[in-house]
Amino acid sequence: MNLAPAILLFLLVFVSTVDARKVSVGVPVLDVTMSPLFIAKDRGYFQKEGLEVDLVLMRGGVSNQALIAGGVEFSTVPTAGLQAALQGAPLKVIFSAYLKPIFWLYARPEVRNVKDLTGKKVAVSSLGAAGDAALRELFKKNGMDENRDVAILAIGTTATRLSALSSNVVDAAMMTFPHNITAAEQGFRELVSFIASDIIQLQGTIVARDQLLQNDPVLVDKFLRATIKGFISYTANRGGAVSVLARNVKTTEELAARIYDLVRPAVAPEGLLSEDLQKRVMMPLLERIGRKELPALNRYFDFSMTRKINAELKTEGWRP
What we know:
Blueprint: H1 4-19, E1 21-27, H2 35-42, H3 45-48, E2 51-57, H4 60-69, E3 74-75, H5 78-86, E4 91-98, E5 104-107, E6 121-124, H6 130-141, E7 151-154, H7 158-166, E8 172-175, H8 179-185, E9 189-193, E10 203-209, H9 210-215, H10 217-236, H11 238-249, H12 253-263, H13 275-288, H14 304-316
Parallel strand pairs: 1-2, 1-3, 6-7, 6-8
Antiparallel strand pairs: 3-10, 4-10, 5-8, 5-9
Helix pairs in contact: 2-10, 2-11, 10-11, 10-14, 11-12
């Protein structure tokens, strides 16, 4: 038996792995919003760019602090990143897979609309997180005072929030997958699908330090190129995306398909945001810290490399 081809293949893989640049990405959750990264890893897009990418699971605030300190090269927590940038942190959003909040507000059956929550308790994961920010913007749009009319409670994970809703600890709760589906099956009322709302909020976003963008643009290009290929594959190949999602979030393909179909309308075309959408992202964050003037958007967003890579892939005729 000739073992030479097998040995050669092993050596090539080994050398490739040894030479790969290790890249850490801080992620707060492994869910559908991470699909472009899942696919980029699964399809070998990162490997082709010479990268070994590690998705490091950490809470949003911790991930943001790790990014600022240089503990990770990228993070996927745009709300915390932009809030920190408003306070002077050298961070920028450079890509976003989604432009709508991927949340659902579920309530007890007797609560028929958002204003019925006046005087009641609503659960979020943590104060200042993306779900909390989306909820507060919803209350403002309904003419409610987020601080006086409703008690917003930080309760933790989606499972914990559903348990609090089931046991009457709260009257409503912000839900993500798959517990929004469970909540509906248990008879709770869907008050709001934030995907169908006019609220703009980033999800599946890549945030980077200014220093990395300036000092190592080659690494940023490689990471973004693989991520964008994953994003294109995600949007163009439903079957393949559902299969990868099911494996990574450890669920059935049937449930993964339901998740994919529900969030597909929230996708940001080409991972980009127009100037108007950038303004709409920033305004609620500015209001929360009492600032009225809109600062220069290029201090917080830089989609130049994402635009360049998209154009190059189109010119090449690249297909997943």
